[in-house]
Hints:
212 residues
Amino acid sequence: MRRFLLLLGFAPALLVLAGVALWRLWPSPPPPGTVEVTIGAKRLHFTSAYLREVTEPDRADLVVLAPDFAPAAADPRRLPGAGEADKAGAAQIFITLTPASGEAGRLAPADRYAPHLTPDVQVGEGGLLRRRFEDKSPFPGEDFYYSAPDGEEFSARCQRPKIPDDGLPEVCLAHFAVEGVDVALRFDPRWLPQWAVMRANALLLTRGALAP
Length: 212
C-alpha cells in the first residue's frame, strides 16, 4: 500500500517530465510572418514576401532581386518602371526548390553536356568557361557556362541573343543541390559576372530557411 501511495505521489512529476520531453520533440511553429514548406524530408521556413505563388507538395517557387537576394515583394522600387529603358523584371531571379535526386555517380555538368557541345572553349562572363551547344543538340541557340574545371561549383545554360530580336528576354538556367534540396535559378544573363555572389546568396537563403 505504501509503495502504491509513493507511486501516486510521483505521478504528477512523471507527467511533467513526459510533457517536457514531448514538447522538445514536437516541431516548433514557424515564426510570425513566415510560411513553412516541405521539400522531401526537409522543412523550410521563408518570409512570405519571398514566395511567388501558393506552394505545392515537394516544391517551392520564390522570387528575389539580384544581386543581394532581397525578396522582390518587399522592394518593388528596384524593378524598372513604365517607359524605362531597362527590361522589366531583369532584376528578378526565380528560384524553384525540389527534392534533390541524390543520384549516385552523377557526372559533373561539363561531362554530362559534353556530347552536345562544340569543342571550342572560351573565357566568358565572370571568368566562367563558355562553350556553344551544337545546333542539332537538345539545346540549340544556347551557350553553356561553367566554372573550371568541370562546372561542379557553378554551371548555367543561357540563351544566345536572337537575330532578329523577338522582344523576349534571354534567360539563364542554373542548378545545384544543398542539404538534400535541388535549387534551380532562372535569371537574366546580365548577372553571370556575379555568379559567385548569386550562388553564395542562394545557398545562404536555402540553408537559413532549413528548420532545425
